[in-house]
Amino acid sequence: MTQFTIDDETWDAFKGSCERLLPHIEGGLLDIETAKADELTDKLATLMRLVHTLKGDAGIVRLSNMVALCHAMETLLGVISANPALAKPSIVSMLLSALDKLRAMVEDCQEAAAIDIERELFVLDLAAGRFRRE
Questions:
Q1: What is the mean pLDDT of the chain?
Q2: Structural domain range at position 16
């Protein structure tokens, strides 16, 4: 099997993209806590696009754990979109914790695969599944 390698220019482009996206994702997460009902749908859609873009970028450089974490965030954001009453501080806190892991992965892309995300995946998936059934 051929090993897939990423050149420095691609890593730099990936990190640059992440450095632009992550602050907007954080701001979007903080915004949904306080957004008025008529603003929430648009804010969630924007936030989901940002996370989806980050997931795609991570896929290009084959950071599968980053892709998985972004996917779990997207899923929970989709559940919130379907039930805006879930845009609460406790749920946003779960998403911010996942964002902290994403930042850690970006800070050390070469070692990102070694970063443990099991807790964040469990919490996000549990919340999404629980609220999807309610």
A1: 90
A2: 8-133
**Domain-located, residue 1:** no
In this prediction, residue 109 has a pLDDT band, given cuts at 50, 70 and 90, of: confident
* Positive or negative torsion for Cα 33, 37, 42, 44: positive
In a domain, 125, yes or no: yes
Contact 57, 110 (CB under 8 A): no
Q: Is this structure's pTM higher than 0.85?
A: yes
What is the percentage of the chain residues whose pLDDT exceeds 70?
Answer: 94
Q: CATH number, domain at 90?
A: 1.20.120.160
Give the three-state DSSP class for 113.
helix
Neighbours of 106 (CB within 10 A): 21
Cα 91–chain centre separation: 13
Structural domains in the chain (count) = 1
Distance CA 87, CA 35 (A): 9
